[in-house]
Each structure stands twice: as structure tokens, then as C-alpha cells.
Amino acid sequence: MRQVKLYDTTLRDGAQMEGISFSVEDKIRIAQRLDEFGVDYIEGGWPGSNPKDVEFFEYARSLKLHNAVISAFCSTRRAGVAAEDDANLAAVLKSGVRAAAVFGKSWDFHVTHALGTTLDENLRMIEDSVRLLKRNGLEVIYDAEHFFDGYKADRDYAMKTIGAAYEAGADVIVLCDTNGGTLPMEIDEIIRDVLNNLSGPVGIHAHNDSGVAVANTLIAVGLGVNHVQGTINGYGERCGNADLCSVIPSLKLKMGIECVTDEQLAGLTGLSRFIDEVANMRPNTQRPYVGRSVFTHKGGIHVSALMKHPETYEHIEPGLVGNRRRVVVSELAGASNIAYKAQEYSIPLERKSTGTKAVINAVKELEHQGYQFEGAEASFELLLKKTFGMHRSLFELEGFRLIVEKREANGEPVAEASIKLRVGDRLLHTVAEGNGPVNALDGALRKALEDVYPELKNIKLTDYKVRVIDEASGTSAKVRVLIESTNDRRTWGTVGVSTNIIEASWRALVDSIEYGLLYATGPAETEVEIEPVPGSMK
């Protein structure tokens, strides 16, 4: 069976993405998770380039990895300097790694204008660097930087550069589309030429500046390339690198290449979200294969067909990559959407029943008023259960009062909320302050209920959004409030709409608390475990 090696460069190339800065602890956690997932190589960084990477490689010596090899990254020796005397190469040897990716120039323009040396000296730089690393027992991955641009500018010289690396003993020659400007039809033609003239293993490293990094990678593998470089979630400088979260399932499920096991592939969505979490990046909900929205269905016709045969609107079974199917409800919903959601919530509801039609009409009317249930599925579940008499209210509001007071000219206003609630035969009356009226109201509500429902302490509000629905009405406009909450196992969204922002917030807040107390049970939807790194690090 054909093998393709997976070379992950999230910790080096991915870390060059704007807004990302991994700590040493972050890099260790990510390396452990990548190894568990099943990649073959983990590029840890550039030894000697900064204290963080030096510390990572020191710690990596003691890592017990089961699948992956830690690889270092470096450039060829400097012009006019012997390889044995080059500081970058010496740092790689000192790092203790078993593999190294060394990059050299393939583009004559870069040799003369960036390096400021001769074409012949560049060839010697490549040869000397590869030979030194091989002589010291390392597996050498030669990254032919700017290869495709170099090939288009001077095909013969570009081919000489990779030939020099191969003759010096490189274990694989990786063709890099460093500027990301090469299109699939060009990739096809150039790689065919390389494979016809180079007898050793060839790899691909594609950047996404033209939006085709994944396509170029898959084309390269289809032609015979057997080493793939990329990053999780497509992280990388400028527009990013080839996204391994798209490449890996395409290789395995579409091209029949067993690059990871079935069990490992089922961890792909969890891996994607774990990396986002560690990087403090908001997940792209439409990221192919692993995004939250990519197996989400909204149109009624789609859902109707989906309930008969999922493959009508899904190119793979979501569970193969650890994702899940979702059906959302909106004004575009049909009876199939409602029936699907009812089945999901264990509500006995027939597709053609009068109850289904009533719910459809209610949803359309509420969305006409400004409600939106796509991001507030908890509110929709409550609506369904209330409609069919399956919901019990945990408390009744007797009334609340809000006071906003500015006590000093330069000070921030202080909000105070008092609330009266009835829980069974008990009348609860509490007061709380907050840094705004909604915060004060939330505090008073929790203060009143936590003695009765102590599990409320585990429910946290994680996001609060206000959207003006009819801007033309000015300060009297209707607003939509969306609240996201979590109990550390599950996350849910609720919605409230009113011309009064406090009332809209109250409706979303009540839904959030009632849903969390009654229905947000069971296992986590997506497990994002961030284990502490053992041992002491600076």
C-alpha cells in the first residue's frame, strides 16, 4: 500500500501567522497531541534563533513520542563560510534532533539579490550543508525554497539546486511554493518534470496565497509525491500553509492513502479545535471537514433529503473525522427541519402533524420579529418543549428593578439590580451590583437561585452580543441579544428580542439558565483537553 509521510510545521511555519505566539509549554502540548494524532514529523522550530526554540529543543530530548520524529529547521551555510563553522548548522547538531529540514535557494533571482552570492556558490552551499548533516547521522529533508518561481524563471538552474541536494545525500527533496503564487495546472506540469528527472523521494510544501495550497498538495500526491508538509488549520504567514485538516482526510478518504489510522482520523476535529484553543484563535466554523458548520443543514429541501439518505448533501460521514451533523432552524425551515430537531431532542413529533406546522409558523413569526435561532439552539429547544408541554419553569419572575447611578463626574456608573422570584412556595428577594445593568441583573438572579439550584455555580456566561435589528429607528430600535453559556462540558446559545435591551437580555438570560439547569447534561460536545506539562520550565 502506498505511503505518504506527514510533516507538520505548525510549531514553526504556523507560528509565523499574525496573532499567534506559542509559549514553550504550548509547543510541548501541541507536539504531544500531534504525535498522538499520528503525524510522522513535527518541525519544532529553528534551534539557536531565539531562547524559546532553544528551550523547546532542550525539553524535546526527554519527550516520549510514539509516532513522530522531532525535526529542526535551518538554512544552508552562509556564503563564504565552511559548513562546519556555520552557527545555524551547529545549533541543529547541538539540538540533538534526529531529523532536520534545511532550506536553500532555488530561484536565481534570490541567489543574486537576496543572498548576494554567485549561482555556483549557492550550489556548494546546498551540497556542503546537506553533507554535514548526513555525516552526523541526521535524516535530511531538503526544502527547495521558491522552487516553482525559480523553475519558471530558469528551469535548468532550479533543477541543478535540487540535484545538488540529492547528490549530497538528502533523504527527500521538498518542492516549496514559498510565495503561494503557483496554480494547479503549473504544479502538475512542473512536478511531472521533476519526477521524470529525479529518482529520489519528492515532497510538497505549498502556501495558500492563491487559495490553492490544498489543491496543489493533493495534485502533487496524485502525481507521485510521497512527503507532504503543512500546518493544522492552515496556520502560517500571510495567507497560511496547506491545511492538514483538509489534506489528511482527502488523502485517506478520497485517494485511499493510509496516512493515519481510522481511529486517529476520528480525532481530527478535536485536534483542530485543540490547536485553536492553545493558539487563542477563534475556530473557523466553515473550515472543511472540521468546522462546526460544514455538516450543518438549514434549507428544508436539503434536510428532507438528508433524512432519507445523508449522502444526498454530505460528501462523507461526519463521524469519520470526529465532527457531527447539525440541523438548524430559521425562517427557511421546513417540516423536515422541525422533525429532525424534535427527534434530536427526543420529542415525539411527526413530520406532517399539525404540531409541526404550528412550530414552523411560530418560528417564522418570531424570526420576523427579529429572533434568530441558528446561534441559539437552546432557545429553540425550549420553544419546542414548551409548545408540547414538556418543559417546566424553574422559577417565576415577580419583578425586578434596575438603578444606574453615576456617583462621580469622572467615575464609571454603578448598576444595582433588585429582583423578586417565586420558586414553588418561596418568594426570593435579592439585590446585586454590577458593572452594567445586565451584569447586575445576572448577579441578582444568580444570588437568588444558587441556594435552590447549587449547580448554577457551574454555569458561566462566555459571550454576550447585541445586534440592532432596525437601525433606522435610532435609540428606540429593536435589538437582538445572543448569549453563549457553558458548564465546562457543553456550550449553548440563547436569544432574546425587544425594543428594550434589558428585556431582550432578560429573555436570553432566563433561557440560558433554565436550559443549563435542565438540559445541558451528558458528555462534552468537543473535548479540548490541555494537560499541564510535567516538570519545570522557565
CATH class of the largest domain: Alpha Beta
CATH topology of the largest domain, by name, is: TIM Barrel
Query: Averaging pLDDT over every residue, what do you get?
Result: 89
Number of strands: 16
Distance separating the two termini: 45 Å
* Quaternary structure annotation: single chain
Shape: elongated
Q: Identify the CATH architecture of the largest domain.
A: Alpha-Beta Barrel
Q: Which residues form runs of ≥5 with pLDDT under 50?
A: 526-538
Helix content: 25-40%
The major pleated sheet works out as:
8 strands, parallel, barrel
Number of helices: 18
SS strand fraction: 15-25%
SS-based structural class? alpha/beta
Instruction: Compute the CA-based radius of gyration.
Output: 29 Å
**CATH homologous superfamily title of the largest domain:** Aldolase class I
- What's the domain count? 4
Give me a quick take on this structure:
With 538 residues, this protein is an alpha/beta fold.
Structural write-up:
The structure is a single chain. Mean pLDDT is 89; it is low at 526-538. The protein folds into four domains: 5-279, Aldolase class I (TIM Barrel); 296-369, no CATH class; 370-394 and 457-526, Double Stranded RNA Binding Domain (2-Layer Sandwich); 395-452, Double Stranded RNA Binding Domain (2-Layer Sandwich). The two termini are 45 Å apart. The chain is an alpha/beta fold and 538 residues long. Helix 1 links the parallel strand 1 and strand 2. It has helices at residues 24-37, 51-60, 87-95, 108-115, 119-135, 147-153, 155-167, 184-197, 213-223, 244-254, 262-265, 268-279, 300-308, 335-344, 354-369, 377-387, 437-449, 501-518, and strands at residues 5-8, 41-45, 69-75, 99-105, 139-145, 172-177, 202-206, 227-230, 296-297, 326-327, 396-405, 414-423, 426-434, 460-468, 479-486, 491-498. Helix 1 (24-37) packs antiparallel against helix 12 and helix 17 runs parallel beside helix 18. Helices cover 38% and strands 19% of the residues. It is built from 18 helices and 16 strands. The strands form four sheets. An eight-stranded parallel barrel has the order 1-2-3-4-5-6-7-8, surrounded by nine helices. Strands 11-12-13 form a three-stranded antiparallel sheet. A three-stranded antiparallel sheet has the order 14-15-16.
